[in-house]
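Q: What would this chain look like folded?
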Amino acid sequence: MRRTKEVYPNAPLQFVAFEVRFPTLRRAVTKDGLDVLEKELEERFPIFQPVTENQVTLGPGGPSDASSTRWYRFLSTPRTTAVSVQPTRLVVETTHYDHYENFREVVALAVRALAKADRVPVFERIGLRYIDEIRVPAPVESPTDWSSFINPELLKGVAVSPSGTKRSRIEGVLRFDLEPSHTVIVRYGNLEGEVVGEGLLRPKPNKVRSGAFFLIDIDSFVEGQAGGDEFSPDASLAICDRLREPVREIFERCVTERLRAEVLRKEAVHESR
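A: My prediction, written as structure tokens:
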């Protein structure tokens, strides 16, 4: 697929994550495994943060079984990038994404550290996710107000709005099957506030992140076959490269030239795809 080489100085990208899901780890989340992970990751991720996640099962009579899962996060000192190790998944996430090559280096560090900490024979899913929050200086409330910034094809659903509608919201999902086991899901819509929540700091804390925005959330992933697919650091990186291929093209097809000219090319910040 053709992908533009342009780097937008005011890209709306807010969050990028790489994830590997696998059968339950035996060693990585034990003391010995964590020691290995810490040794491999501490130079770039010196902050170690244990996390306890509580879960409650709801039954007909109300809350019943309660359980907790303990997992571990390694954070960079600016707290904008993290590597999380959980019993069934490894996640690399960042709110400070400048170039794919730099993000790929962190992914490589994480998957190689995991391979040293534990034997992971197969993966069940590998995914790469990009979340854009598009904000424009023009007043926008209804989906039709976005039509000069966002591809109008995404906004056509508003045509069925009943008479008397004062404000409407479009939230849609597109699914593309690119090849066997490779799928891209795009979630989009006109929303308020922000969707990237707590956990990581944003590199530009004073940048406006309230009010109306248009979400473009691209999740590119492959799933292992019935018995899983072999996991290795090199195979994971090759898959990551393949998952990235359609992302830029999809984003470009979602936006208009007016958005590029009036917003994306304007203010120098350090975000790009």
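Residues 62 and 171 are 32 Å apart (CA to CA).
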